[in-house]
Amino acid sequence: MLNASLPGDQQFRKGIIQYLKQFSGFNTDTNDLWNSLTQVEVSTQHQNVSEMMSSWTSQKGFPLVTVSRKGSQLTLTQEHFLLTSDNATHTSSLWNVPVTYVNDSCSLAPECRQVFTLKNKTGKTPSFNLLS
Q1: In terms of C-beta density within 10 A (0-12 exposed, 13-18 middle, 19 or more buried), how is residue 2 classed?
Q2: How many CB atoms lie within 10 A of CB 115?
Q3: Fewer CB near the last or first residue (10 Å), C or N of the chain?
Q4: What is the rounded CA–CA span in Å between residue 77 and residue 54?
Q5: What is the pTM of this model?
Q6: What pLDDT, in 10s, does the model give residues 22-62?
Q7: 46 contact partners, CB below 8 Å, separation of at least 6
């Protein structure tokens, strides 16, 4: 998920290499890895990996993302996934969920890939031509 959400094909790999070289033989914490992945810039887009990943590593469970379409816009909604509703407690947990998509105005080439990050309970993608 993290690799697919980073801009450029090599950012994850270069970030891991940078992290291993910089901290070889030393103790580290999770933020050192996230910072290494954030600092490697292989494109004009910039994403704070620490901000995104802390939502995944500092809380229990994972989100269920529901997508609905209205015209040329997609609405994404996240809620805490629970296998059963027995004794379930409602939580207000939110994750930074990277959603990768392409549309029919562009081919499936890697440079056509777009990433939308769902940070709130509900989010809307920019309007575009959708495949039927």
Answers
A1: middle
A2: 14
A3: C
A4: 20
A5: 0.74
A6: 999 999 999 999 988 888 765 555 568 888 898 898 888 88
A7: 7, 38
Spatial distance between the Cα atoms of 87 and 53, rounded to a whole number of angstroms: 28
The single-letter DSSP state of residue 86 is: T
DSSP labels for 18-80? HHHHHTTTS---HHHHHHHHHH---SS----HHHHHHHHHSSSS-EEEEEEEETTEEEEEEEE
Helices 30-39, 49-57: crossing angle, 10 deg rounding: 150
Token pair belonging to 131: 């495949």
